[in-house]
Each structure stands twice: as structure tokens, then as C-alpha cells.
Amino acid sequence: MATEEQVLDILKEIVDPEIGVNVVDLGLVYGVDFPQPDEVMVRMTLTAPGCPLHDTISRSAEMAVQTLPGVKEVHVKIVWDPPWTPDKLTDEGRRLLGF
């Protein structure tokens, strides 16, 4: 069974192509759940509703998490509440963006 730490680590490989920072450090990942031992549910948002890369980012996240040992099923749920703001950036995200 994968751990939350493993899921977050692999999601750091998914970079928002418009911003150039990974989805974890952007603060886009709102939660990781394990409904079943071999199933992962990722709740995440995007920086803006109507983002043209919605499908690309969510599909990339699914494919990355799917590579973890013991994971058979991955679901990425895009949520809009609470809305994303720059306050959600990690310290590393702030550093990468020059804040």
C-alpha cells in the first residue's frame, strides 16, 4: 500500500506548465485518501476555474500515482472549494516563484 508521503513525492513531478512549479508546492493538492488499500483518491484544485490544462494536469497526476507499488486504481477529483490563493504555496513554492 502506498503512503501519503509517497503520493505527495510523486506528485511533485507534475509541474503546472503555465507556472513552472509542481502541483504540491503550488498548494494545489488538498488531500490524499485511501478508500481501499490499492486505491488512491487525490483531491486537488487548479489556480483558476476554466484552466485549459485541467485534463492534462489531472491525467498526469493519475498516471504518476499509478506508478507507485501496490496502487491499482487512482482517482483525481478537481475541487474548487476552497478556492486556490497564493497563500496555499509551500515555502518551497514561494522560493521557486521568488516570493
Describe the structure.
The protein is α+β, with helices and mostly antiparallel strands and 99 residues long. It has a single domain, classed as Fe-S cluster assembly (FSCA) (GMP Synthetase, Chain A, domain 3), CATH 3.30.300. Strands 3-4-5 form a three-stranded mixed β-sheet, covered by helices on one side. It has a two-stranded antiparallel ribbon with strand order 1-2. The chain is globular, with a radius of gyration of 13 Å. The model has no long low-confidence stretch (mean pLDDT 94).
For this entry, give a set of tags.
single chain; alpha+beta; GMP Synthetase, Chain A, domain 3; 3 helices; globular
Q: Indicate the CATH architecture.
A: 2-Layer Sandwich
What do we call the CATH topology? GMP Synthetase, Chain A, domain 3
Q: For the terminal residues, how far apart are their CA atoms?
A: 37 Å
**What is the general shape?**
globular
How many E strands? 5
Strand-pairing-aware structural class? alpha+beta
**Superfamily at the CATH H level?**
Fe-S cluster assembly (FSCA)
Fraction in beta strands: 15-25%
CATH class: Alpha Beta
Helix content bin? 25-40%
The helix/strand order is HEEEEHEH
Counted by DSSP, the helix tally is 3
Low-confidence region ranges? none
Give a quick account of the main beta sheet: strands, pairing sense, barrel closure: 3 strands, mixed
Radius of gyration: 13 Å
Write out the strand line-up for the largest beta sheet, numbering strands in chain order.
3-4-5
Overall structural domain count: 1
Query: What does the average pLDDT come to?
Result: 94
